[in-house]
Amino acid sequence: MSAFVEKGKIWFNGKFVDWKDAKIHVLSHALHYASSMFEGARCYNTAKGPAAFRLDAHIRRLFDSCKIYRMPVPYSEEEFSQAVLETIRVNELKECYIRPIIFRGYHSLGVNPFPCPVECVIAVWEWGAYLGQEALEKGVDVMVSSWNRMAPNTFPAMAKCSANYINSQLIKIESMENGFAEGIALDPDGCVSEGSGENIFAVKDRKIFTPPLSSSILPGITRDTVITLARDLGYEVQTMRIPREMLYIADEVFFTGTATEIAPIRSIDRIPIGSNGRGPVTEHLQKEFFGILRGERPDRHKWLAYVYA
Ligand code: PMP
């Protein structure tokens, strides 16, 4: 990942500040106790101008995360979405990654978050393919992690809380140190959960399978997008608990995520998956997905929020 370019403006509690001035105190609650909820969305340049993909769904998930952690947001979802679009306009970007974050700020320190103010930030910057452009075509080599995702009575997986990403970091570090691009975590029962920052799908005999919300996954917006598009294209999609070995014998396995988009997995634990490259169902779904988000195919589900509407 390349370093920040440090230009442009960041939306900070309703005001635009210079990138370098968007700072918080070292004794902010979020830094010590991980009390922050965030999102990762993307804006794509389409034939009709830049458009944020499924912005309403991302903002809805952000507000849901805040609700779970009793963090009152001083804006409506509509106001927040408008602020995202305004931030893209102010930075004059055509394609970018969008990172809203809502966190407990600086007041006093103790586990109790309530005395600390709720702060809201939106940052946008240019960003390419997360696992690399080549990954989208050729696929990535991954391992099953020795780290599990969290049990449902420990950290709520449905909240996109920074705290969850310390588990993601263990998965990512282990996979990189072992020479893999990414790790797949199992859930506390030993069934397949998700990658450190991606949901996962398996294809067997042209049927598509993905783990359910009860397998400690983040309810991915790309996951929902792929399920919808696959059904539109006539595939049968089942959410079901997936035993690890089902991945090894699948015809195709792929990751989905805002950053990752749709990335084929060509081997798991050094076992080649299917033809050891991108399979036909993955490619079909990629074509439909990229066609819609680039505005080349009709936006029949109204997923594009145009920046200059
Ligand atoms: N799982 C985890 C743990 C993630 O961090 C992400 C990325 N937000 C995903 C799944 C994919 O979610 P989405 O498609 O909404 O980006």
Bound ligands: 4'-deoxy-4'-aminopyridoxal-5'-phosphate
Distance between the termini: 32 Å
**Number of helices in the DSSP assignment:** 8
Shape: globular
Strand percent estimate: 25-35%
List the main descriptive attributes of the protein structure presented here:
309 residues; 9-stranded mixed beta sheet; 8-stranded antiparallel beta sheet; 8 helices; 29% strand; binds 4'-deoxy-4'-aminopyridoxal-5'-phosphate
Give an overview in words.
The chain has 309 residues and is of the alpha+beta class. Helix content is 27%, strand content 29%. The chain has helices spanning 29-33, 55-68, 77-90, 133-138, 164-177, 221-232, 244-248, 280-293; strands at residues 9-12, 15-18, 36-38, 41-46, 49-53, 96-104, 118-125, 140-148, 182-186, 192-195, 199-204, 207-210, 237-239, 252-257, 261-268, 271-272, 304-306. Strands 8, 9, 10, 11, 12, 13, 14, 15 and 16 form a 9-stranded mixed β-sheet that branches. Strands 1, 2, 3, 4, 5, 6, 7 and 17 form an 8-stranded antiparallel β-sheet that branches. It is globular, with a radius of gyration of 19 Å. The structure holds 4'-deoxy-4'-aminopyridoxal-5'-phosphate. 4'-deoxy-4'-aminopyridoxal-5'-phosphate binds next to helix 6 and strand 14.
